[in-house]
Amino acid sequence: MTFARQALLRAALLLAATSATAAEPPDVGFTHKDWELACDNTRTCRAAGYHAEEREEAAVSVLLTRKAGPGQPVTAEVQLGSYSEDDRASAAKAGVTTMKIDTRTLGTVRIDPKTLTGALSREQTDALIDALTKTGTPKWSNRGGSWSLSGAGATAVLLKMDEFQGRVGTAGALVRKGTKAEDTVLPALPAPVIVAAPVVKGKASLPREAIKPLLAELRKGFDDGECEGLAAGGKTELAVEKLAPGKLLVSTGCWTGAYNGGTGYWVINAQPPYAPELVTDQASNYANGTITAGQKGRGLGDCWAREQWVWTGERFAQTLSETTGMCRLVAPGGPWHLPTFVSAVRRGSSAGCWGRRLKTGASPLMTPTTASDAVPYGDRPQRQRRRQRPYGWIVPSIESSKVTPIAAPTMILMPETRLPCLLSQ
Q1: Which residues form the signal peptide (predicted)?
Q2: 211 and 167 share a domain?
């Protein structure tokens, strides 16, 4: 079973979208043959298609994105494979690229030399969808080569997208069109706003006599051996950091695999009773009030998944859950951002407060850096995630001042190296 199928089939396919709220993400994913679907808590859906699996030497992927609501168009991007290319080969793929459906020419697409992606026009997008739901084969070619997109699985995936957004039977449906009024389409939901609170930096320590009773509390909810750092009779190393007045953040390594690992993080009271609250046991890093976690789908690193949590002053709230698509050797780190949960993180508006606002849009290529900078997907119960040890990927350092775009229908404020001032709504 492929990584994408493992990842997405773990999530419940909740097509009863009428009852979904932004605070309770639907976590919808579906994979069929060479296509996959991810719909997030705002009801935006993203469908990604790939080359036939045996054609990895001519890897290509297309991303179809559609926001919820009546009359919303589908946007399309194509990305040419860059996983094993040197700079010279990648440069040859950039620039003006001809698009065809079988033998019919549909104009050109301009491929960006940095990301090897290009946006399709409205006419090209319509022709692409028509071909995918029938028998046409989309192709792109330039001086660097020729790339064919597989349509296997596309109709099933696009039908699921229509079902989730309530478009089946309307004129705007991609697969089963009808005469139903467009105003019957489900509306978009707002992304939840998460207000990030300032944190206290620095290491902390606990009295030696407090370690044993604390460990007993941390082990609650874990079966024996589920978290290696808490194993009875083993050498336990707890890292303790300051978090907020009266609160500490405790962590220990829980599991390791061939190319992934997970750390458990708990919020505890600074004084007994410690009353630990588990945030996750899949984490990769903590910095400045943000816990991130990320795991590869396989050793080649061409598919990842990520989650993120931010300290609100009372708890760590989840702010993001996404994958980067199938393991198809399209690009290092994966070709796309396919979120199932998005949010808007706000870091204050009073004088002197800082925060970097980021407009979202087309998904650029994610550049892998260090393995400690990312998070796994899923809004499943923590116990389920713990047993399944999900996959993930590496993203640019959250600690750095460099801001990386995230393909989500909202405004995101990314953390910086400085602490924020006091926050206001």
Answers
A1: 1-22
A2: no
Q: Residue 338 has what pLDDT?
A: 98
Sign of CA dihedral 47, 161, 304, 315: positive
For residue 232, which of 221, 224, 240, 220 has the smallest C-alpha distance? 224
Distance (Å) of CA 228 to CA 77, 120, 265, 269, 307: 43, 49, 13, 23, 22
Which is more confidently placed, 225 or 219? 219
- The 290-296 sheet, strands edge to edge: 285-287, 290-296, 304-311, 316-323, 338-341
pLDDT in tens, 318-345: 999 999 999 999 999 999 999 999 999 9
Examine the domain organization and report whether 347 and 396 are in the same domain: yes
DSSP H stretches of helix in 202-241: 208-218
Q: How far apart are CA 292 and CA 380, in angstroms?
A: 16
Whether 365 and 115 have beta carbons less than 8 Å apart is answered as yes
Q: How far apart are CA 18 and CA 192, in angstroms?
A: 17
Task: Identify the pLDDT of residue 387.
Answer: 35
Tell me the whole-structure pTM to 2 decimals: 0.78
pLDDT in tens, 374-392: 333 333 334 334 333 333 3
Q: What pLDDT is attached to residue 234?
A: 74
Q: Please name which of 105, 135, 113, 109 lies closest in space to residue 121, comparing C-alpha atoms.
A: 109
- In terms of domains, do 261 and 164 share one? no
Q: Which residues contact 323 (CB under 8 A, 6 or more apart)?
A: 4, 7, 8, 38, 303, 304, 305, 306, 334, 338, 377, 391, 393
Choice between 9 and 253, residue whose per-residue pLDDT is larger? 253
Alpha helix (H) residue ranges in 185-299: 208-218
pLDDT band of 88, cuts 50, 70, 90: low
- Same domain as 247, residue 360: yes
For residue 117, what are the domain limits?
45-184
Q: Which of 156, 184, 212 is the last residue of a domain?
A: 184
* Residues 94, 112 contacting (CB under 8 angstroms): yes
Residues 130 and 212 in one domain: no
